[in-house]
Amino acid sequence: MHISQRCPMPACLALAGLAVASLAACARGATGPAVIPVDLAEYTIHPAAAEVAAGQVTFTARNVGPSDPHELVVVRTDLAGDALPTGADGRFDEAGPGVTVIGEIEELAVGAEGSAMFDLPAGNYVLVCNVVEVEGDEEVEAHYAEGMHTAFTVR
Ligand SMILES: [Cu+2]
């Protein structure tokens, strides 16, 4: 008896494709955290850039005067800068609806500089000076009401 046996096709060894996960290098690795100088004056806030990439952002605020103390409050909000909730004296209401205060650089005397780093997710922000000065008996000067706010974008 003759048995003819066909040689089976050699099993194909499936090579598992080695998917090389492309580990994107930290986009900020080359340049380090973003630093945004901000000039504070009566009654303006001028950041050196109007937007920044999401992540760790350092604001370096400088009070260029001429005579009032100023501060820098970082607020995440979709509201327009001039439409933030306010208190009776015109100050920005940091606990009001539609706003999240990320943090702040405390009041700076004229000529002083302060900096702080914040972890900022992408979104719309407003930078505010929320100093309120009481002059004499009644005169209240809320820097926010005087126009110390500016839009800032984190993308
Ligand atoms: Cu101010």
Provide structural commentary:
Helix content is 0%, strand content 46%. The N and C termini lie far apart (81 Å). It is globular, with a radius of gyration of 28 Å. The protein has one domain (34-154): Cupredoxins -  blue copper proteins (Immunoglobulin-like, Sandwich). Strand 1 and strand 2 (44-47) form a beta hairpin. It has strands at residues 34-41, 44-47, 51-52, 55-65, 70-77, 99-108, 113-120, 123-128, 132-135, 139-142, 149-154. A 5-stranded mixed sheet has the order 3-11-8-5-6, with no helix packed on it. Strands 2-1-4-7 form a 4-stranded mixed sheet, with no helix packed on it. A two-stranded antiparallel ribbon has the order 9-10. The chain contains no helices and 11 strands. By secondary structure, the protein is mainly beta. The structure holds copper (II) ion. Residues 40, 68, 70, 129, 131, 143, 148 line the site of copper (II) ion. Copper (II) ion binds at residues 40, 68, 70, 129, 131, 143, 148.
Write the layout of secondary structure elements.
Blueprint: E1 34-41, E2 44-47, E3 51-52, E4 55-65, E5 70-77, E6 99-108, E7 113-120, E8 123-128, E9 132-135, E10 139-142, E11 149-154
Parallel strand pairs: 1-4, 3-11
Antiparallel strand pairs: 1-2, 4-7, 5-6, 5-8, 8-11, 9-10
This protein binds copper (II) ion.
